[in-house]
Specification:
The chain starts with a helix and ends with a strand. The chain has a single domain, classed as Porin. It contains 2 helices and 13 strands. The chain has an 8-stranded antiparallel beta barrel with strand order 1-5-6-8-9-11-12-13. A hairpin with a 7-residue loop joins strand 12 and strand 13. It is mostly beta strands and 260 residues long. About 11% of the residues have low confidence. The relative contact order is 0.21.
């Protein structure tokens, strides 16, 4: 996944290079106005994201399968049970973007969260027994288009729309009481939509400080824990299924940027 993140950033960099060539052939004018006075249409931002994740509802399809002596395999509902994502994380991020066609009002960018931080998922209700439920690694990949109405101002605000893909990997079941030590889990990789509001504080023509707020919606996770065994007793297999867990995420991004 480190390679995937690098490839995506390089793709945006290559698109920016092509846009520079097209802009050079078209001249300094154009539909959207003149180029930056420094001639820079590409930029990179290194910073951090601070998310706050809201589990808006628990899935109505949350069930557990239990094999009971003399009865056999039974699917049992878990009322008032669900998943709660621990959002107490700071995610290092790298963003690469460019202003296509030599203009300075619309930018296109790709943000990648560096894929080496852990995310914790806790259970609620019955699934809260035994502590932390699942631990995993998360790689968020965002594609944004931003509109900058005042690109030449000291403080340049912008609004943006985009999409995010959340790749989950290295999932590990942590709750040995409910599912034992050999349980496995798989969590889906959902897409979401992004609305952004932010600003660049232009320190020089080259350097700037970036801050924005993003609302991420429409992400819907599915999760399954299988091959579990209650309290490692050896005779009471368990598994749990969560379908359609909807999340709303509020993210504050801070970073230092450079145009080139």
């Amino acid at each position: 996944m480190h390679r995937l993140a690098l490839v995506l950033l390089l793709m945006v960099h290559g698109m920016a290079g092509a846009a520079d060539i097209d802009a050079g052939q078209a001249g300094s004018g154009g539909l959207f106005g003149s180029r930056w006075s420094s001639g820079s249409s590409r930029y990179v931002v290194v910073g951090a994201s601070i998310p706050s994740i809201d589990t808006r509802r628990h899935s109505p399809n949350l069930t557990t399968n239990v094999s009971l002596p003399l009865i056999g395999q039974q699917e049992l509902p878990l009322p008032d049970s669900g998943l709660k994502v621990d959002s107490n994380s700071v995610i290092p991020t790298a963003t690469m973007g460019f202003y296509p066609f030599g203009q300075k009002y619309v930018s296109v960018e790709n943000l990648v969260g560096l894929p080496f931080f852990d995310q914790s998922i806790d259970g609620t209700g019955f699934l809260a027994l035994g502590g932390e439920l699942v631990n995993l690694k998360v790689l968020p990949i965002e594609f944004m288009a931003n509109f900058h109405p005042l690109p030449n101002s000291k403080i340049s605000p912008y609004v943006g729309l985009g999409a995010v893909w959340v790749y989950t990997y290295h999932e590990r079941v942590q709750n040995n009481f409910l599912f034992g030590k050999k349980a496995k889990t798989k969590i889906s990789n959902p897409f979401g939509a992004i609305i952004a509001l932010g600003a660049d504080l232009n320190l020089t023509e080259k350097w700037f400080f970036n801050a924005d707020f993003k609302y991420i919606c429409c992400t819907k996770f599915d999760a399954k824990i299988s091959d579990g065994n209650l309290a490692n007793l050896g005779f009471l297999p368990t598994e749990a299924v969560v379908q359609g867990l909807k999340l709303s995420t509020y993210v504050v991004n801070l970073g230092m940027g450079m145009r080139y």
